[in-house]
Design a protein that fits this description.
By secondary structure, the protein is mostly beta strands. The chain has strands at residues 26-27, 31-35, 39-45, 49-59, 62-69, 87-93, 104-108, 111-117. The protein has a domain at 26-72 and 84-122: Immunoglobulin-like. Strand 4 (49-59) and strand 5 (62-69) form a beta hairpin.
Length: 132
């Protein structure tokens, strides 16, 4: 029998994350994030999610992503089931370098692409050097 290790040290606490409270199955979508000079781009895999079933919100410094999947096989008998259906849910903390008023997104072929433009103050800029 394996030993059970308990740690009651409460001096270090991990940051709390929002968790869904509904009983429906939720999956964490796989995400790639790309940074350019002008923006961050977030690519989230959400198979089975239609563009009109995406709830994308920015509130209190967080980007909340919720993709709703419509059941395809509800009530039909299955011989084998390897594909689980459920909604997608994930929350990202966004810092002040992103201009939240200009966030936009599109969903195509099960991939949600979110554009998070950087504020002008943090974008790199070329400085002209004059001859003396």
């Amino acid at each position: 029998m394996a030993d059970v290790i308990t740690n009651h040290d409460k001096s270090e606490v991990a940051a709390a994350q929002a968790e869904p409270t509904c009983a429906a199955r939720h999956f964490t979508p796989r995400v790639d994030i790309l940074e350019t000079e002008r923006e961050l781009m977030l690519f989230a895999e959400m198979p089975g999610v239609r563009p009109d079933s995406v709830d994308l919100r920015y509130e209190n410094g967080e980007l909340v992503l919720h993709g709703k999947v419509q059941p395809k096989l509800e009530g039909k008998p299955l011989l084998t089931q390897e594909y689980a259906e459920g909604d997608f849910y994930r929350v990202f903390r966004i810092d002040e370098t992103v201009d939240s008023t200009k966030i936009n997104a599109e969903c195509k072929n099960g991939v949600l692409t979110v554009h998070l433009p950087k504020t002008e103050a943090v974008r790199p800029r070329q400085i002209a050097v004059k001859t003396a």
